Amino acid sequence: MAFYDPKGARAGVRAVGGLEIPVLTAPRLKHRGFLPDLLNGLGSLLAGMRVTLATVIRPSRIVTRQYPENRATLKMYERYRAVLRLVRDGQERHLCTGCRGCEKACPNGSIAVETAKGAITGKNELQSFVWRFDTCTFCNLCVVACPFDALEMKGDFEHAVFDRRLLVFNLNTYAGPHAALWDKVEGEEQRARLAQKIGPYDGPVPLNGAQLPGLPARATESGGKA
Amino acid sequence: MSFLGPAAAVASPPAAEVHTLATRAVEALEVGPLEATLYGLLAIVWIAGLLVVTGLALIYLERKVAGHFQCRLGPMRVGPHGVFQTLADTVKLLVKEDFVPDRADRVLHVVAPFLALASTMLLMVIMPFSPTLQVADMNVGVIYVTAISGFSVMGILLAGWSSNNKWSLIGAMRAGAQIVSYGISATLALLVVVLFSGTLRLSEIVQSQADGWWIWRAHGVGLVAFLVYLVASTAEINRTPFDIPEGESELTAGFHTEYSGIRFAFFFLAEFINMFLVAGFAATFFFGGWMPFHVGGFAAFNATMDVVPPFVWFGAKTCVLIFVIMWFRWTFPRLRVDQLMRLEWKVLLPIGFVNLFAAAFVVLYGFYFFAGP
């Protein structure tokens, strides 16, 4: 059995393939006879018991959260991947250029991006960004792939619905150019004609603008209520 | 027991008179057979009720303690702080399908859980909860305790054998080897206390500790005996870190792999009651059982301690020891089979023997604290 003596551990450097790797070397624990070994073992058992007792007598260390009672005070982590969203600037405009990088990066085809040439800008503009919440595995690859940082995975996790079709929806709230392109267009009148509002269940999604009678739609942060 | 010398001269304190249910039944026999039978029934109800209530409480406690050891809360949903969780689980187990494998030995498979529980119930009979709350108090109490706790291996062996399952069989064989081996050390540790108190009767062992508990009265010998008993008995009841008979990672569930429903519940119940028994016997032998905490010479302090009823003293000591056993479970990793055997035969057994000899010398020369007037 390989027991090592942590007290004799020494930091050193070992040359491996031209690199100097810092290593920690510890000598084998020596057998020092029946009684010393026994007392040493008892000591380490007691040390372990002290560690676990320290956890028990500090209830503040408990990580369990009583959901849904704590719904009002519940705070999710910064990096929690709840839903895919389009990043918006201060004026609620998305940053998506419609390059389809996320669509290609998606491992199971949960993203479908539709673009069209804009009449005013003459550039590719996002028409609909359809995300399949029901098949998404929240791997975050689309967010990583996006060259314009136009996607994020964040937010709330309560998204239960009574119909699966409600889980396929648009992330964009309007069909039109991204924020930077928008700013290049001159004239108020021209700008007003840039965007065409769409709801989360409009366009090439299963519901296609229809509503399910008696079923409440998803309350989404990305698209708002239909 | 006069050959034990000074030990025989242990001060017999003016402690509460032991009045067991068995003696009451015998006394009632003079009034009539019906009265005696009623006492017998009372004893049965007491044991059965205690078995169920302690089982439920201990399982709940274990889950709570486990939760808090792991920064969790444990059961919280069924009832306030989840107190009815075990009850709900018991109902679930009761209504589950009672499954017997195709080529299993049907009779043995059915009998095994009852055997496992039977040894537990038999041990419950002799447990001295308080001077008046003990079903039977026999003059060979210690021998009875060791014999019956060795008997518990029968249920486990039969369960593994009758299941017709390799894992069950391996688990049962491991349990057999383990219980038989560690029973020796546990007995050696108990013999130390027998040497000091000069009696095999549990109530007298408790009464011999009126001036001080054997764990510190015996000049270190008692402490070593207690530690040996704690380790050996933890192994005897198959608790972690000695739970290789179950060994989830290697044997799925060991001897009760093929058990479901109420039969599984019986094994589970026996396991938890055994923990209570081990803690209770450790309290009885080393911590004075139902005796209040007394310090020699401090009459006022001793009188204050006497206010607390003996039952509470026994319960408190047992609870602390149960917590220690649970604490073991959530701290130590499981031992390998060979390590387990080495610990018993190469470490615990020599220590136990040396300790027994040392105890004999201590007793011979009356070399212990508060030796009495």
How many discrete structural domains of chain B? 1
How would the global form of chain B be characterised? globular
Structural class of chain A: alpha+beta
Q: What is the third-level CATH name, the topology of the domain at 83-197 in chain A?
A: Alpha-Beta Plaits
Count interface residues per chain for the largest interface.
A-B, 15 and 16 residues
The tally of helices of chain B reads 14
Largest sheet of chain A: 3 strands, antiparallel
Helix content of chain A: 10-25%
**Do you know the CATH architecture of the domain at 83-197 in chain A?**
2-Layer Sandwich
Gyration radius of chain A, to the nearest Å?
Answer: 28 Å
Shape of chain A: elongated
Which CATH first-tier class of the domain at 83-197 in chain A would you pick? Answer: Alpha Beta
Please tally the β strands of chain A and state the result: 9
Oligomeric composition of the shown chains: heterodimer
DSSP strand (E) fraction of chain B?
A: under 5%
Largest sheet of chain B: none
From the structure above, extract its key features.
heterodimer; A: 226 residues; alpha+beta; Alpha-Beta Plaits; 3-stranded antiparallel sheet; two-stranded antiparallel ribbon; 5 helices; elongated; B: 373 residues; mainly alpha; 66% helix; 0% strand; globular; disordered N terminus
Describe this structure in words.
The complex is a heterodimer of chains A (226) and B (373). By secondary structure, chain A is α+β, with helices and mostly antiparallel strands. Among the domains of chain A are: 33-63; 83-197, Alpha-Beta Plaits (2-Layer Sandwich). Chain A contains five helices and nine strands, in the order E-E-H-E-H-E-E-H-E-E-E-H-H-E. Chain A has helices at residues 34-56, 101-105, 141-145, 179-184, 188-192; strands at 10-16, 19-25, 83-86, 111-117, 124-132, 151-154, 168-170, 174-175, 196-197. A three-stranded antiparallel beta sheet of chain A has the order 4-5-7, with no helix packed on it. Chain A has a two-stranded antiparallel ribbon with strand order 1-2. Chain A has a two-stranded antiparallel ribbon with strand order 3-6. In chain A, strand 4 (111-117) and strand 5 form a beta hairpin. The N and C termini of chain A lie far apart (65 Å). Chain B has 373 residues and is mostly helical. Chain B has one domain (2-364). In chain B, helix 6 runs antiparallel to helix 9 (221-236) and helix 9 runs antiparallel to helix 11 (261-286). Chain B is globular. Mean pLDDT of chain B is 83; it is low at 1-14. The chains are: A alpha+beta (226), B mainly alpha (373). Chain A binds chain B through residues 38, 45, 48-49, 51-53, 55-56, 59, 61-64, 66, and chain B through 65, 67-73, 76, 327-328, 330-332, 347, 351.
